[in-house]
Predict the structure.
Amino acid sequence: MRLVLVRHGETDGNVMRRYTGRTDVPLNENGRVQAAALGRELAEESVGRLVHAPSRRTRETAVLLAAGMNVGGMRLEAEERLWELDFGAWEGLTYEQAHARDGARLWAWYDDPWTVAPPGGETLRALDERLTAWQEEMCAGHGGETVIAVTHGGPIRLWVAKYAFGDAGLFPQLWVPPGGHVVCERSEGRWNLVKGVVTR
């Protein structure tokens, strides 16, 4: 199985460095250009399924991606478990604004995102549980095909850390830019990173 994990194209929230996990923002113009260009780059992939998180920015990316790959007629599948981490009360805030409002909680979350959540948000463990369930279901039902999943930075970083590198604790050190992608292949029960991911 081959898995191409795509981070949605750029949004204004990315440019302003805002927490926009569940905030449903669209791509900006640069993000649309990125998505179209990535579609052309991935045109040689023999895609079997194209799934996306339910957010507007991931769906817009998936549509532009499909057009660039010349698979515009392919059914796009929305997958709830590919949502970004929920940042709760910090949604829409910059790091500086979140720190001014709730500095102690912010630092506690940075130190231990697995058990500490943003106020009203979710922990990294909750995201891990979502991704694990999706990964198991995907492997059980789609053995030999290429799956393209358009999602968010958090899920991609956690996926690569846990499944490709075998250490979920590497999550904070990994980075995939808006419009970027990674490629993983599964062989003999293991995921191997083929392309992509940048360390901070």
Notes: The mean pLDDT is 94.
